[in-house]
Amino acid sequence: RDDTIRHLLQDLGLEQHYPNKLSLKDVLQIDMRSVTDEPAQFLSSLPWLFLKKLMMVNVTARSVKYSCNDEDWSSLDIYNDTFDFLNDQNSSVNPLDIVTALFLCSDGFLQQEMVSKMSMCQFSVPLLLPNSDTQQCMFMLWAMRDIVKKFRPHSLSEQKGFVEERIVHAKLPLVSFVRLGNCNISKSQILNKLLSNPKQYHDTFVHRDMDCGDVPRKISNGLVEMSWYLPCGNKNIDVFPEPVAFANLRGDISAFETQYSFLCQTSTAVFVFFDNLDTNYKLLTNQHANAQFFLVGNRQSKVFNLEQLKRTASEMSLKKNNIILKTNQNDANFVKNLHSTVNYILNNLPNKACLEGMDTIAHELGIQVDEDIKECQKAKKNAHFITEEILDTMQFKQDQLPLQGKIWKDLAKLEKEECRLRKAGDQNIETYKSHLQMKKTELRKQQSKYDISEAMSCFVSALTTSDQERSYFLKWIEKYKEKSQQFSENKEEIAQLDQQISNSSLGIEHFLREMGQLYEAAVSLPENSESHQQMLHLPRLCAQLMLDGFPLELVDGDASNIPLRWVSDVLHYLNFLVQPNNKIIVVTVLGVQSTGKSTLLDTMFGVQFAVSSGRRTRGAFMQLIRVTEDIRKKLGCDCLVVIDTEGLKSPELAKLDDSHEHDNELATLVVGLSDITIINIAMENSTEMKDVLQIVVHAFLRMKEIGKKPKCQFVHQNVADVSAHDKNMRDRKLLLEQLNEMTEAAAKMENKEDYKMFTDVMEYDPETCNWYIPGLWHGNPPMAPVNAGYSEAVYDFKKNMTDIIGKC
């Protein structure tokens, strides 16, 4: 057994999380580290600094390093032979060791989140994770299941648009890069150049010329990383015309034969880099592999042996095109040769594979698979039991989730009419109210006639398992969502298409919505009824889910209504579960659809709300974020509740007569619930900005009437040049003028003409309440990494938000 890993984990301050794993909740909770900029002065600070930057999708995350101060140096015994104070390697750590250590110390859900964020940064991600402690490696299938990519192959006709697929399901050629013996060519650097557009270089793989990249690896030798090249459909930009996966083995294949064998059996092609083939060349000739081999030799090396290369090529039956030599030419010409070879592979070698199918080969080679753990497999079985028989999503929802159909929508209309009384006419108001109440009671009776369906019974049962199994189960259910989106694209009208999308969508929110209706129907019955008693535990189950980090649907996105009793009782139990630390601050984001609200929330807080049919948030969802003890005093709260809403001015709702009223209702509701409202504006659309501001001003005006004056922050997204202070100052002045005009107009409409200025109804300072965020991507997706300016600007906004929260 090798103790290197334990020594490094101790140095990195991670020993307590091995084997007691770090969870996603641990990383996403708000603590002092997440909102302060103290430099890393100890080795043990580096993993947390990396995680902090990674969760904010900051492309500089792998460049984290610390600097010893004078006190640190004075405490070291420079006369101890085990410490060479002139050797900088003692005060550095290879970025790949930090990544490997964190993956070894994280549970499956944090690993998934890390991989997703690394993929957004265009970092390579672990495919085979080594563990020097057990001498085994782990196939990271579960960790990669959340990666969804959009791309447009050149072979795809323009009429078909683009491909959107989970990367584990994509059947792609895999090209692997490995090394035999010593080699002075940097594989990783060459790979980066191969994957980069000449006009825009990006470090996908860590290489020796990066910060700390030349520090020897301690525990990441044997790591196999993976990345993808995905075309955007533009021949002038794309490096390769078709999608292709790349793998990179860290270390000598003679020391990591298992990983090498795995790549030989799963790859379309394997490129072997070498200086000299004299040592262990038999490794190359002994492989029973599907892959085609390409030998990449360093002709400039003093130990290069041309005769040995010829013998090896003969034994492997390799053609001339399968041998690539780096001579005195510069890297550009060498990369050009490799590029031509990879294009040849894409055009001529049919062998493709998908990640999901590689677990069989992993098992045959004795490689562990992260999905093999008992809780994951039991959860998968439970989820599969619910979804395997679904042939028609709409029919499944009618049969298995009947309570959220027409009856619930009719109930929603009755409840709204009960408040508005618009259709009373000449009737006596009390008589009309009584009539509405009778109709509601009749509909609840109809609901209560339905027994809990088999699917819902299985769903509720799965939620009563252990925390880990429950989380796996919900993830597996959510992964069914893309299968439920197989709808016909040949619709004549957008309205019909949108309805089809809505009807065919099936996610966790639909099951939880059914739970809510089961509960509401049951509690409308006498307390001694059997159905009433059976459903009493459901709010507690949902409250536990909120504690685990899952969102609660506040406003039903389809019926546009709130199940009041259900939401109230869930929050009652949540309050009980977090006592005595139950003081909360509520933050809401409002804005036009598709302006980056959900991405903003994910970057700030790591929250991920349900998105209908992979397109947009529907209704309103709330999610709980824990606040650690070290920052509670500063924030003045124990938890944040973040509310995400569907986009205002939705094109899908624009065709409805009451769409403006719908937006006003939603805005008024969430503003009323909030302590701080973030108004998200896309700078490129000034017309929609005015419409949103008008809606928001009406909401704030109503809050003023009930004695509430919430705080407000404006986030201006896609600002081309955030350094143009003078221009932004003019924009702020113009924005305030517009807000004042709208306040005056809204006040007249509400018969409250005393209010003339926006600051009469809102706490707003043009200098401190406006934030300018640059565009999300640096370049052209799908190969563009997240713009570092975006991450930094959102982080600055998050830090400022802690000050605002503290003043609430």
Automatic annotation (TrEMBL):
Q: Which GO terms describe its molecular function?
A: GTP binding; GTPase activity
Looking at the record's lineage, which domain of life comes first?
Eukaryota
TM ranges are none
List, alphabetically, the InterPro entries matched: G_VLIG_dom (IPR030383), P-loop_NTPase (IPR027417), URGCP (IPR057365), VLIG_GTPase (IPR052986)
Domain spans labelled VLIG-type G: 581-808
Pfam families of this UniProt entry?
A: URGCP (PF25496), URGCP_GTPase (PF25683)
Q: What does the sequence similarity comment in the record state about its family? A: Belongs to the TRAFAC class dynamin-like GTPase superfamily. Very large inducible GTPase (VLIG) family.
Q: What's this protein's name?
A: Si:dkey-85k7.12
